[in-house]
Amino acid sequence: MTTPTDSTPTSSTAETSDPEPRGNRLTRAVDRLSTGRLAIATLLAGIWMVGGLMIANAWFAKSDIGEELFAVQLAFDPDVIREQYARLVAQDTLDTYVQTQVLDYLFITGLAAFGWLLHRLIARAHVPGSRWHRVARFGGLLVVTSAAFDALENLVAFAMLADTTGFPDVLAPIYSTLAAVKWTIAFVGGPLLLVQLGAVVARRTKRPAQS
């Protein structure tokens, strides 16, 4: 028997590679990879992401911004952001914080690569075109979108950090909006990933009864 949404995949389609790679050149190249090679690429991207996170967190700690980071990101108020920047200037850690923003791109790019590849890998467990296959592809786009908003958020931060007392007020709500969208996507994407993994496990456990 098969479920209404997923027909039983053959090993040469759902689990080895996408039978009809579509999209841009990068997407087509990834979809032509064997599942084993895609898993290795995903693992390497995950190591990159974790390494970038560890480096960025170490520099965040050096800047001593601490829990105030979220207050800055979601302030929407230029005066609140200027106050936090003034504190960094007073404790002589502003340059460290600026460097942290640069190093944060190691994590951002790693997150985008890992999240996108992981969801492409999860999609291999489902029949191309099925509901869960589409959900996995959508999850990958969510991760990349979140990373893109994070990258844009840092660019706005650089503009404010270039003049911590005189940056245009309009930059504050733009900065906080980008941060809010980033975190919203992250809070949606996390549970969605868990649901997808649960669907993969459920599908695997049903196979013996179907064979």
Keywords:
7 helices, disordered N terminus, mainly alpha, 211 residues
The proportion of residues in beta strands is under 5%
The run of helices and strands is HHHHHHH
User: What is the overall silhouette?
Assistant: elongated
Number of domains: 1
**Low-confidence runs (pLDDT<50, min 5 residues)?**
1-15
Q: What is the straight-line distance between the termini?
A: 9 Å
What does this protein look like?
With 211 residues, this protein is mainly alpha-helical. It has one domain. The protein has seven helices and no strands. The chain has helices spanning 25-31, 35-63, 68-73, 78-90, 94-123, 131-161, 171-210. The longest helix is centred in the C-terminal third of the chain and has 40 residues, at 171-210. It starts with 24 loop residues before the first helix and ends with a helix.
Write the layout of secondary structure elements.
Layout: H1 25-31, H2 35-63, H3 68-73, H4 78-90, H5 94-123, H6 131-161, H7 171-210
Helix pairs in contact: 2-5, 5-6, 6-7
Summarize the structure.
The chain is an all-alpha fold and about 210 residues long.
